[in-house]
Amino acid sequence: MPENTVQYMPECKRDESIPGICKLHLPSARQSENIYSLYRQDGGWAWAVLLSSMISHIILMGITFSFGVYFIVLKEYFNATAMQTLWIGCINTGLVLGGGPIAAITLNKFGCRPSIIVGGLLAALGFLLSYFVTNTYQLMLTYGLVTGLGFGLVYTPCVVMVSNYFNKWRYLATAIACTGEGLGFVIFPIIFNLEIEHYGWRGSMIVNAGIVLNLVVCGFVMKPCQTDRAIVKMDLIDASLLKDFWMFLFAFSMIFWNIGTIVFHFIVSDYLIENNIETGKAIYFLTIMGVANMIGHPFAGLTVLLPSLPHANKWIYVTSVLIYGTGTLLFVLDTTYEWYIFLGIVVDFFWGLQLGCMANVIIDLFGMEKFNHSYGYQMFSQGIGNIIGPPIAGMLNL
Q1: How far apart are CA 219 and CA 34, in angstroms?
Q2: How far apart are CA 85 and CA 111, in angstroms?
Q3: Among 133, 147, 269, 367, which lies 20 to 30 A Cα-Cα from 238?
Q4: Residue 354 pLDDT more than 60?
């Protein structure tokens, strides 16, 4: 019998009115549902949920992280400053991550599936409205606010659903689902470049709206399991976490980390162009980093094979942050394309490793029973970092 199933033995109680006869008591409907819920974890429909979550990560995080392509085009088209253009992508990313608490409240109230479906529709609407804008401030509203909020309603439930459907292989399943972020970072710079080349940046917004509607399909696949239904009965806000010292410490680290992380990825192609790297190579550089990012993600899940090292996730996380931060500092040491390629691969491999183990670290720190709240709070902290990043970059004369 598989390890994650529970063998239920019907209870036999003797009927005193009839000597030698016992009554067979079968499990109640609630007991049967709980038994079936345990059985289907790590198997069955869980694989469909994992695939849908991975596809969702490919779309929403691939689009979000690849804004660097639009950064180059929009800055030139609107004759805008780098800071103005940067705000468009950072508002979007800030709400993708910062919308965690809103997503947590939504999934607690209505469940993961409705949150993902509504988020997909809202994100598609934001792209459609972006077709009609006439300045960067309107893009901040449509691409940044509307699409970002839609993505935010999708992101957290996708991670929570995988954690609900997997038990024994939870660490690995979460890392695999988050691998979609890296894969999206590989393919969307290429997709964006082709869209802009054939349809212009406005036409590309219509195409992107169609792509984003696939999130709605993924949402329908996310049918609730027993653990997901249990979430609906939880408090909308977990006040105990707001008093937790480690929650605040981790949140502050997320804020400072994200002040520089997304800004770096949005401007790196433009930075290469300013250092006399061809535009085509500068855009292709995002795809190279995306490949390294994608490879790094699944390595984070290998901690499931190290049960004797209870703090493995935390060590991987801290080491990844250290190497990533050091690597970005080294970009100023040389201006050759080969040097940039080397650093890009190192930096994004460890960024992928960090992102892949982040959910597992949060589970280790705060427990699975508080995962939807704790993950949402940490996403909110990341969103704050992304939103305040542009003005800080502006003060540094970006």
Answers
A1: 23
A2: 35
A3: 147
A4: yes
